[in-house]
Design brief:
By secondary structure, the chain is an alpha/beta fold. The protein contains eleven helices and six strands. A six-stranded parallel sheet has the order 2-1-3-4-5-6, with helices on both faces.
Length: 225
């Protein structure tokens, strides 16, 4: 008999958590071992319980579910996280997967979609709600059709440190995370970021992410449903 997958729910609405637990009672392969109502509690419970799976609300009262996902995944590399959100914007989806999430489902989707996602990510697959897939593909197609503002030649004008920081920024790390990882000050990271944006004629983080993807610096395969 297959071992049940342990599951932690992180969501600040008690009734919604109860609804999830009621739904999952009908699927014996999953066992809810804990629930948390905010990000910090979710991180502490994940550390204690080491669940196989986490259902993560994107909008938590104390911090973003994306930041919580990143912290849990850095702490527990084997734990797989599914983002459950009311938001369907490409920016949220992109940041969620870059933070280490394996699945993304909107709350308005049918309950079957949620279970389908849990089954997929528990097998090591990535899952994107099919109601969102066309938006992601459309965004990628439109991005490909636009003339790129940066080229390989432009990228080569960056110093090795700037190239390193560009990759980390494109992966969704915060200024503080990058500073901690590279053992430099947040101010130095901001200076490098400003230089990168100026050299490559970029004006937003999303532009940086898209062009990093075009250059193959980050993997965009996870964006596809």
């Amino acid at each position: 008999m297959n071992k049940k997958k342990s599951l932690l729910i992180v969501d600040d609405h008690p009734l919604f958590r109860e609804g999830l637990k009621s739904l999952l009672k009908h699927h014996s392969e999953f066992e809810v071992v804990g629930e948390a109502e905010n990000g910090e509690e979710g991180i502490n419970m994940a550390k204690k319980l080491k669940p196989d799976l986490v259902i993560m609300d994107l909008s938590l009262p104390d911090q973003s579910g994306i930041d919580v996902t990143r912290r849990i995944r850095n702490m527990l590399s084997e734990t797989r996280v599914m983002i459950l959100s009311m938001h369907s914007k490409i920016e949220y989806i992109t940041k969620a997967f870059q933070a280490g999430a394996h699945g993304y489902v909107v709350k308005e989707s049918a309950a079957e979609r949620l279970v389908e996602c849990l089954k997929a990510i528990s097998k090591g697959e990535y899952f994107l709600d099919t109601s969102l897939s066309h938006k992601v593909v459309k965004n990628l197609m439109e991005s490909d059709q636009k003339e790129a503002k940066i080229t390989d030649a432009g990228y080569k004008t960056l110093t090795p440190r700037e190239q390193q920081i560009m990759r980390l920024l494109a992966e969704g790390l915060s200024t503080k995370d990058i500073a901690d990882q590279l053992f430099i000050s947040p101010k130095t990271v901001e200076n490098h970021r400003s230089n990168i944006m100026n050299k490559l004629d970029l004006h937003s983080t999303m532009e940086l992410v898209r062009h990093a993807a075009k250059l193959g610096i980050i993997d965009v395969d996870l964006w596809k449903g």
